[in-house]
Amino acid sequence: MAFKHDNVEDLYEIGIVLGSGHFGQVRQVTERATGAQWAGKFIKTRKNTCSRLGVERSAVEREVELLQALQHPNIMALKDVFESRAEMVLIVELISGGELFDFIAAKDSVSESEAIAFLKQILEGVGFMHNKQVAHFDLKPENIMLSDKDAEHPNIKLIDFGLAHQFKPGEEYKSMGGTPQYIPPEVINYSPLSTATDMWSIGVITYILLSGMSPFQDDTDEGTLKNIIAMKFEFPEHIFNMTSDLAKDFIQKLLVKDPSERMTAEECLIHQWIKPLTRKQIANRNRSSINIKNFKKFNAKRKWKMSYNMVWMCNRFMRLQLLCRQSSAAVADLRDCESDSEDTETKPASLMRRRLSSSS
Q: What is the pLDDT of residue 338?
């Protein structure tokens, strides 16, 4: 896909703000030629190495390259990319159904069979990525969306590929990125990563979906990471009393310390919880349900924490801006660099690439 140097407003009418972060915004846009609705990710890029504001252009280019290779019904689609000196704009699929967890939390009850219908879509999208040797590395509720929550059978969309990586043959890749309660031991230990890293995250997401509890979460991130390293999790009877044994087995085969021992996405899709072999298994699954009361509490707390973290990050960012301005006035080496404060006067600059990867 060629990067366009046209003015994005010549081809798209810029609409309302759908979301924002300290490196820009996501806006609803309308294609002038067809009237089709899309989303525009306005990403502020760094002007030069002296600049402290914005995302590195190479990181955005890498995300674009990955999205081009990942054309699948359960993965956010990319249509156009525009670039200018200080900004890049990604025109992507407009995903208006909100987060899957919010959709489920609005219900009075959800059976395991209904939960499985969503998990299958997640696994199909992730399996497609993994077959392309791409790992997402930031699978969490905020990055699992619905294209249209009012549809009879809502379609899952995986979003935010800011931490994703495509493996090359023989490559060893390490990263400390991700959200504490969803990362596996190999991330904490700074060991080589693989597509199996995503499968651990799916195990955590499934555990939360069924119980309304996070398997390793502690009061602090440090405590959470210690629990992960110690593999400290269980299935409390008073929480999982409506959960089938096959569902627990599914989770246990994902929350495995050795990445090579975890189920792959393809193996998950043929696990007997997802694909029952007998009428008895089907009956057991249909009688089982998620702990919706607990799940609603978990989701409300999660949303509150996201809002709190956003306010905290914005306040911290403003303090950093002030410190940077004070520092740059005193450091002679920075006098020849372009001022970051000039960029704050420009029009919409971009979506925060990691969508609060540091938050849970």
A: 39
